[in-house]
Amino acid sequence: MGGSVDLELQTTFAELQGKVIDTQQKVKLADVRLEQLNRMKKHAHLTDKEIMCRRNVYASDRGGNSQSTRCLFLLRTTSGMW
Questions:
Q1: pLDDT tens-place string over residues 20-76
Q2: Which of 35, 77, 72, 37 is closest to 53 using CA atoms?
Q3: What number of other Cβ atoms are within 10 A of residue 23's Cβ?
Q4: Which one-letter DSSP state was computed for residue 67?
């Protein structure tokens, strides 16, 4: 009787370990996707700023009321900045 309980506990524990590993892999995948989305969001934000700067330049070249500003945004890793 005691041996069957131990075997059942081992089986259940092995199943739980498998679920833990599966969940950890899913979390890592979600983290990677989140990082990609954050990079895409940052890129879109910088692109939007660049477009707005170019619109201001274009409007001032056409005699609009906007002041001319020239903008350049570079996306670099933090290790490449220093």
A1: 999 999 999 999 999 999 999 999 999 998 888 887 766 666 655 545 556 666 666
A2: 72
A3: 10
A4: P
**Rounded Cα gap, residues 75 and 43, in angstroms:** 8
Q: Is the dihedral of CA 7, 10, 12, 15 positive or negative?
A: negative
Determine the average pLDDT of the residues in 3-21: 92
pLDDT at 42: 95
- Neighbour count for residue 52 (Cβ, 10 Å): 13
Chain-centroid distance of CA 78 in Å reads 15
Count of C-beta atoms within a 10 Å radius of residue 48: 10
Q: What is the pTM of this model?
A: 0.55
The answer to whether 17 and 23 have CB atoms below 8 angstroms apart is no
Per the listing, tokens 């700067």 go with 53
Q: How many whole angstroms separate alpha carbon 18 and alpha carbon 12?
A: 10
